[in-house]
Each structure stands twice: as C-alpha cells, then as structure tokens.
Amino acid sequence: MAVALEEKVYNLPASPGVYLFKNGREELIYIGKAKSLRHRVRSYFQDRPVDVKTEVMVSQIEDLEFIVTDTEVEALILESNLVKKNKPRFNVHLKDDKSFPYLKVTVHEAFPRVFIARKVRKDGALYFGPFLPASLARRTLKLINTHFLMRSCDLEIDGKLDRPCLDYHIKRCLGPCVEELCTREQYTQAVQEVVLFLQGKNEHLVRNLTDKMDAAAEREEYELAAFYRDRIATVRALAERQKMIMGSLNDVDFFAYHQEGPRLALQLFALRGSKLVGRREFFWEDLISFRPSEFLSSAIRQYYLQDAYVPNEIYTSDELEDRQLIEEWLSLRKGARVKVHVPQRGEKYQMLQLVKKNARLAFDSRFRVLRGEQEDLLRQLQGVLALPVLPRRIEAFDISNIQGSDSVASLVVCEDGEMVPAEYRRYRIRTVRGPDDFASMEEVVTRRYQRVLQEEAVLPDLVLLDGGKGQLSVAVHALEGLGLEELAVASIAKREETLFVKGKEDPIVLPLRSPILQLIQRIRDEAHRFAITYHRKRRRMRDLSSELEGIPGIGPKLKTRLLRSFGSLREVQGASVYELAQAVGWQKASEIARHFGSTAVLK
Fold this sequence. Notes:
By secondary structure, the protein is an alpha+beta fold. It has 21 helices and 18 strands. Mean pLDDT is 79; it is low at 93-99, 239-249 and 598-603.
C-alpha cells in the first residue's frame, strides 16, 4: 500500500459513512458503506480477501475518499445514490428505482389518497421518501390510515353513495363517499395534517391538534377530544426521521467550511430531488486574511460562474455580504427565483451541521492534523524531539525585514494543537541595525521571556523558531541569560524543512507527509504570515512618515496623528481637505493638500 493511501487509512474516523475507492487513473472503482469507516476500510488491507473480486479490487486501489454520516442507515441511502450516479466497476448496479419505496399523496385529486410508489413522477402529486427499510413505508402508511383516516380506495368520489364501505365502520376512513359523513373541507384538513406529518413538521401538527382537542373539550365533545389526544400521542411517538430523507427539500446546495489560520476547506453538498447526489471540496493554503461573509460570497460567485447548475435554494454557514445581489444574479441565470439562507434551526440547519462536520474532516485529511488524535500527535512530537514534557503549549517566532529595514518579529501560540490568535504578539526590533536575523531573534526572545518572568505568566513547553542552527543558538543563549535553561527549543529550516533541537548535534529529517512535520509547518507558517503582515504595515507607515517629513510645519506629533488617523500614504494623498482637517486642523490640512497636489484641495 502506498504511503499516501496508508496515511489516509490510518486517519479515517470511527464514524458511520461512505467510502470511495479510486484506481491510479482517479476512476471510482468501488463505493461502500460502513458503521465504522476506520474499521471497515482497514479490514480490506489487514484481512485476507474473502473472494476473487475483493482481491482484484484491493490490488487496484490507489486512493480513497469518504463522507461521514450520522447513522449507518443514512450511509446506506447515500451509498445507493452515489452508486447509481457513478456506477463504479466493482459495485452492483440496480437497474431501476425499486431500491426504496416512496409515499405518494395525490393532492391533484379532489379527495387525495396516500399509497406506496416505486418511482417519482411529475404528475402533480407529492412524494415523500425514499423509505428504508421498505417496511417503514408500509408502517407509515398504516399509521396514516389508522389515525388520519384517509381513503385507500380508487373510487370516483362525489359524495352521492348511500352508505360507506367497511373501512369507515372499522375507523380506517372518514367516509367522503357519503356527503353526510364527511365534507370536502373536513377531508382537506385531514390531508393537510398528513402532509405536515410526512414533512416532519410534527411540532406544528401537534399545536394544531392540541387546539382542536381543547376546543372539543370545551364543547364537552369528550370522545372527539380523546381522538385528538390519541393522535397527538401517535405523532409524538414518531421515531427521529433520517436527515437524508427530507421531503421538503428539492434542489438545494449547502456550503460550509472549516478554517484554521491561512488554511481552509470548503465543502459543497448538492441535493437533487431531496437526495444527496454529490459533493465537492475546495482547499486554500495561503489565505492572508479571512472574513467569512466576504470569502463565502466570492467562492459562491466563482462556483456558479463556471456554468454550474443553479438550484432553487442555497444554504450557507454564514451570511453573505452581498446576498441580495447574488440572489438576483442567480435568479436571472436560472430563470426562476433563487434564495440564499443561513438556517438557524430545523432540518436544513441539521444538514448544514453535517456539511460542516465533513468540511472539518476534509481539512484534517488534507492537512494531516486530526483533532480527535491531537494528543497522540503531540506525544509523537514529544518522542521525536525527546522533550521532557508533552508540548501542549508551543510558542513560535519569526523575523521579517527587507535588507534590514523595518525589522519586525512575530510570536504565535499553539495550545493542544490549536492556534490561539488572542495570544499572538508582534515586536519592532529596537537594538539591531542592518540585516541581522540572529541578533534580531536574540532580542525578541529576550524581550518576550523577560516579560513572562516579570508577569509570572505561563512558560511554553516548546519554543519554536523559524530558522536553522544560527537562530537556535542565539535563542538558547538568550534563554540561558534569563535562567531558563530548562526550556525546550527547536528550529525548522525553510528550504530543507530540517529540524534542529537544543542538545542534539544531528538534525532531524522527517518525511514530508509526516503529520508531526505538518503540525510544525503549520505553526511556523502562521508565525511567518503574522510577521509578514506586520512588516507590510510598518513599511506603509514608514513611507508615509518619510513623505510627511518634507512638508513644512509637520512635526513628529502631527505626523503621528496622521499615521494613526489614515494608516497609509495613499489614504493621506487621497483625503480631502475636510477629512485632513479633522485630524490636524484647517491650516495644516491646506498645506498637506497643496503638497500632494491640487486634487486634494478641490475635494
């Protein structure tokens, strides 16, 4: 088994779901379901194949994907949908739609019926399902006949029969065939209750039935009140419906993501005709900044711009910054109204949580850091670096400058494998002149842990540096000067991705796909991103400061005020006299505007 495939198998969650095997040409060759993805998929590679087909299939597996579900039943339904759509070579292909039955409500008829159907047709009826096992459809139909009393016959109903059939007498039908027994309005009310029941809107239905029960009791119609009481009990006793069986959804796309630092996994689930027919994954590794509303808005626009099918509804985990505009654009493309929602409760919210769960697992699979195994990963890191304690708190440093100008440093914190942005710190290098990364690293390490000691704050279990032996040496020297010889220190060189550890002569080289190395890289990359961001800000401030020095009458105080108010030279250049005056007064504002040209004066 290839190393990449072995890592994927090792990192599978112990959850129910669907797994998809691919060959060397990225073709799907088998789709299966499992109660435990980890146990089932590992069994293919650990146990002896039970038949020739499995032996041949395993020999061709080069890659795998998986989708997590909440229950094994959901996994089975999803497996059937995906097999029908993709037709993998080693799966059994069903030739028709007889896998799972539906319940059909003939709302296009004057007196609708409910019965089992094997296919969904465009005939004006409502379809609910599919139901698995088939006995669930039969039990549900019996429940409807018993408690909602809808007719099961195929007669033409005109209310003119003299007497009802046996179903009425055994309380299995309202008897709409005899006008004196049941009016059309009464029967329509029963149909509406059945539709609510099949849509899973049980609380709404219970409220309606409760109102009817209370009204009957007030009229002292106790037999009718007892009937509604029993119907309420029946509705409340309904087992939890499967989220994959959502009769109220038609063509819907769900978008959710998982993000950590500059890395992000976006997950799309597509439901067509209330069935999950596919999903797509998108990954980003170098996000400089992140705002959910902006990111999702851009991602959704790009996706549907590629001639992707536009569904009736789109559900997202966060509000879009220009939702109404996107709705209008998509509606024009589709030729029908398209709505974008952020659900807060109900079945759509539950489905979105499942999409989020898959986004997190896709993130973990791509970047090799599984949350459920963080402690195990930290123990592996402890063993590889020979650390005295488990590195639950890691503090990482990076230096950023251009030929020694505007030198800055960053500190980022990782606790239990998760980044903690609230504890990030940034530093201006004060004592070093010129491009000296070693001296800069020694300064910032000294300043950081001097303050930690003064404030009696928490010390890290590991100090991580972006650099090689030189950075490691000066950091160790700085810590020894503070009496912190016991702190563990390591560095990672960028090009070779080699680890250097305090007290070890030889460097440590880990495989590029090693989860331990990828954890260290993630922390190092976050420190680098944070340092670069601060360095760019300092350069903008320096450019503005240098330009302002050439304006007569602008001293250090006014310069600082302008820097704080506008933040960059471009913003000052583009500001009107009125805007400048709010910061420095009208006289100085006029001088600054004249310095940058007449355009600003005329605003």
